[in-house]
Design brief:
The structure is a single chain. The protein has about 350 residues and is of the alpha/beta class. About 45% of the residues are buried. The N terminus is likely disordered. The protein binds zinc ion. The site of zinc ion (ZN) has 5 residues, from loops.
Length: about 350
């Protein structure tokens, strides 16, 4: 989910070393020594996810570490079967690394871990969030509907969609492994003889872990560093005063310390070079959105629903509307936490943001 009004011109400033080449479904394509790219279809607007295979040795066995898993559907299981068949050089999977708890990343982790009798490695925050989403109450429901209503959402279709979304996560992530190995910011993993450092990122998922290998010159960026679309950054009902956008922007600044010629392997889109350019583009993108919202809040008090057309210059369906609301609140909160707007709750129960008089 993302907004992309003028990204294509910007995209040309990035370099795609693989050109237009994509791995065929069910195959693995080498992008760097010991690093293979698997691309699986998704039945969403965002129609694919990239998964990565890292040649590894663990506990004396040769095989592969997997980074991210795809959602749990018969189609993605079938694609994995093909990868097992032809993409692993006959070697086993040794561990399953998950960047964050979103369904396209963790959905099949339980199946991969069971099948290969291996451990899932993930941040603790995302592990427990995934357990809650899959084995617990789920996300969405009445609390989410009420939260978005308090930010001005009135469309009955969108509200109904949110109310009934309790089972959405479980549908794509029917189970989460019973145990995990914890990844934390600054941890170093040895994968295939190379050191990979964990870089935690916030604002997109509770505690997203990207991995950087200085030796390979590669960043496994997950959803925190995408070449074409801007990462979804949202505020949800469980943490209604979150400053998700500020967290996100601060997080991507940490990638600026990596070398300029780093090859970024993103979860969506193509492997790219131009990391520093991309960080600057994302800052500019959000700065422009914030400036537009600030001027809107100067003209009159605005709620999140009021500013949706400013952020998204296209018609949104009910599903997209709820994502868009989360993003709109994230932008308004960034202005609020920066002291550029104040918020007040109207007699109608709706939060509105305005510049101080
Ligand atoms: Zn994600």
């Amino acid at each position: 989910m993302a907004h992309v009004p003028h990204m294509n011109a910007l995209e040309q400033r990035l370099h795609y070393p693989m050109g237009e080449t994509l791995p065929a479904p069910g195959t693995a394509l080498e992008v760097a020594p010991g690093i293979r790219w698997v691309r699986m279809g998704l039945p969403f607007a965002l129609n694919h996810i990239n998964l990565w295979l890292l040649r590894d040795t663990l506990d004396g066995r040769d095989g592969w570490s997997v980074v991210d898993c795809c959602i749990d559907t018969p189609e993605s299981r079938a694609q994995w079967e093909q990868v097992f068949e032809s993409g692993l050089d006959g070697l086993p999977i040794l561990r399953v690394i998950v960047t964050h708890m979103h369904p396209d990343h963790i959905g099949l982790a339980h199946w991969l871990c069971e099948r290969w009798d291996v451990r899932m490695w993930i941040s603790a925050t995302d592990y427990y969030a995934a357990r809650l989403g899959s084995h617990g109450a789920g996300f969405g429901g009445e609390g989410a509907a009420e939260f978005f209503r308090s930010h001005g959402l009135a469309s009955p279709e969108a509200m109904e969609k949110i109310r009934t979304r309790r089972n959405y996560y479980k549908g794509l992530v029917p189970a989460v492994p019973q145990s995990f190995r914890r990844l934390m910011d600054g941890d170093t993993l040895s994968i295939g003889g190379r050191e990979w450092r964990c870089i935690a990122g916030y604002g997109h998922a509770p505690e997203h872990i990207a991995l950087h290998s200085a030796e390979a010159g590669v960043l496994l960026g997950g959803d925190m560093m995408l070449p074409r679309i801007s990462t979804n950054v949202s505020v949800f009902d469980a943490e209604p005063e979150a400053d998700a956008l500020t967290l996100f922007l601060r997080s991507i600044d940490r990638f600026a310390q990596l070398p300029a010629d780093t090859l970024t392997l993103p979860a969506h889109g193509k492997p790219f070079e131009g990391l520093h350019e991309r960080i600057a583009q994302l800052h500019q993108h959000h700065r422009e959105r914030l400036a537009e919202l600030l001027s809107a809040c100067t003209a009159a008090p605005r709620c999140a629903a009021d500013v949706l057309p400013l952020l998204f210059q296209r018609t949104l369906d009910a599903h997209q509307t709820s994502f868009a609301m989360g993003e709109a609140i994230a932008h308004l909160h960034a202005l609020w936490f920066a002291g550029q707007v104040r918020r007040e709750r109207g007699a109608d129960g709706i939060w509105r943001f305005r510049t101080p008089a």
